[in-house]
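Backbone-to-sequence.
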């Protein structure tokens, strides 16, 4: 059974890679940027949420700047998209699937990181969600879109659910994530996000809005 720190690192790096691919693909499709823009937006999407989490937890400098692997994985993801964009863009709904993967993994690792640093259950759930949506929010702002967390149905909600499951499944009072709990939490978050996308499910919105206002 892997230790909690090793488990969090592995999940964090996988989520970083998934979000880097997502951010880079989004950059090419919506902003028409060059190689620097592709890699930069991919990296921001990949590590932005973790940086926000660590700053809020007072864990300075953030893990991104203490462990070279984060930036290396994020850069590799962006470069891979730049080189093979045509092939990757033909994969059906690849951006949405990668976004859901990154969302679910970061919800788990963000909550686990908060627990490791002494945060309570409520704080860990909130920080897990912030880790999951932070990078995508920065990406959307930079490409001139309304952030998905504010406009896309079932985006923040799956992150909160996944973080909550991870916290509930942590080992006793020491804040360590178990492998089974982490996998279940990520799978539930991923599933909710994909179901929401497939059926175009929306979080509750104010009543009485006109259709052209109520939609993106």
């Amino acid at each position: 059974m892997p230790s909690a720190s090793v488990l969090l690192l592995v999940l964090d790096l996988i989520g970083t890679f998934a979000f880097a691919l997502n951010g880079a693909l989004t950059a090419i499709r919506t902003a028409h940027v060059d190689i620097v823009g592709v890699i930069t937006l991919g990296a921001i999407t990949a590590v932005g949420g973790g940086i926000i989490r660590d700053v809020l937890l007072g864990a300075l400098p953030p893990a991104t700047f203490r462990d070279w692997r984060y930036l290396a994985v994020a850069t590799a993801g962006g470069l891979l998209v730049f080189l093979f964009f045509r092939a990757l863009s033909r994969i059906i709904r690849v951006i949405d699937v990668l976004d859901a993967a990154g969302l679910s993994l970061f919800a788990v690792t963000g909550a686990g990181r908060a627990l490791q640093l002494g945060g309570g259950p409520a704080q860990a759930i909130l920080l897990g969600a912030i880790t999951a949506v932070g990078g995508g929010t920065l990406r959307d702002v930079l490409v001139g879109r309304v952030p998905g967390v504010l406009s896309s149905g079932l985006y923040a909600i799956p992150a909160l659910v996944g973080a909550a499951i991870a916290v509930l499944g942590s080992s006793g009072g020491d804040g360590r994530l178990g492998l089974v709990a982490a996998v279940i939490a990520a799978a539930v978050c991923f599933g909710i996000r994909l179901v929401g996308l497939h059926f175009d499910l929306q979080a509750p919105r104010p009543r009485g809005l006109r259709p052209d206002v109520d939609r993106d």
